[in-house]
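Ligand-bound model needed. zinc ion.
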Amino acid sequence: MKRKLLFTAALAVFALTINAQDLRTGKQRCYSVEHEQWLQSQNPNLKVQKDNDEQKLQSWLQNFAAARVSNGNSTNSVIVIPVVVHVVYKLAGQNISDAQILSQIDALNEDFARLNADTGNTPGPFQAAASGTQFQFCLARRDTNGNMTNGIERRLTTVNSFSTNDNVKHYSSGGLDAWDVNNYFNVWVCNMSGGILGYAEFPATAHTNTYGVVINYDSFGRIGNVAAPYDLGRTMTHEVGHCFRLNHIWGDDGGACSGSDNIADTPNQESETYGCHTFPYTDNCTTTGNGIMYMNYMDYSDDDCLNMFTSNQATRMYVSLTGYYPTLTTSTACQDVKNSIDKLNDIQFSVYPNPTDGILNVDMSTTAGRGETIQVRITDAIGKVVAEKEIGQSNVRVHQIDLSDLENGSYFATVYSQSFQKTVQFVLSR
Ligand SMILES: [Zn+2]
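Prediction:
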């Protein structure tokens, strides 16, 4: 819910202490606002910077809206964000498996593309506002030195648990250092103290070496060592929302109804929601009609009750990240290192449409007719080969691959020969 001139009010709420708790589980769903308060207590100039940054964002949003109208609303390309996951553990159970990490990337990609299996649970009157975003996520394939990586690093620590003071983000305090925040989205997984499930750092014009999210090991992913009711990867979806500058849907105003999340297509809401309510659910800020949007990822409902972002939230995330961290949106850290940079730059191919509804066009551009036997391989998000096509030494530029038997989701197309290999990501959605 957005009210006129209230974006400064949403920032003023950092003065409030919230610390709400899920009384059933004793868990603290999210500590991003409290973390922001702590950062501001460390740096008195930060609040002024944040206010200026929000005003800047409002002006970017206006420019974006004007540009979108002038080019016919047709800017919907997929932006793939390279992710590095830093697993910091003391006990074996905290050293979560690669499979658990991949299950989180899958969940994140489904939620951000609105390809999650539970979109049908979004109440009818909210379906029109529900939206995918332009973001997808991949585990990094090259590290900061250009060497091959699987996008996961691990450390056995002597620290029993980490609070929200960012110690987990520094090797010197028992954690792991961030990889360059301009090219990698950093995720730390650890044992958090106080039952906290996660926290995020909001983006700002002034970059830090702590930008990213921290998630408790048992609310990360949806297989392996995960604990209900926060076991479908939605803690990460929520925290990434904060990293892309979304606020809590109730506006963090202590129940006053006067605060705002600066989003026009969410209803006004009193405070956070726990458990799983039945639609329509009203509160003291929205007392009639469709009630509040308790199934929005920026609320606190159980994981199996959350299922949507709105289209205005998607726009705010896009404009924020491309504004605050533009190089992160064009990072090449998910390209394989098998080939030299020169060779990679020499090869161009693209796939379209993206998202595709089943028939994928592979445009070979500069790779066609190079005198080498060229193959195309399609893999799913966890690396399983799901389709292959041999193109041979053809001069034909555009080849079609029929993927209509595959499930909706995020996939990779790799074009390769004996001397080169290059991969791009795309989404199948029908
Ligand atoms: Zn939050």
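The domain at 7-328 is CATH 3.40.390.10 (Collagenase (Catalytic Domain)).
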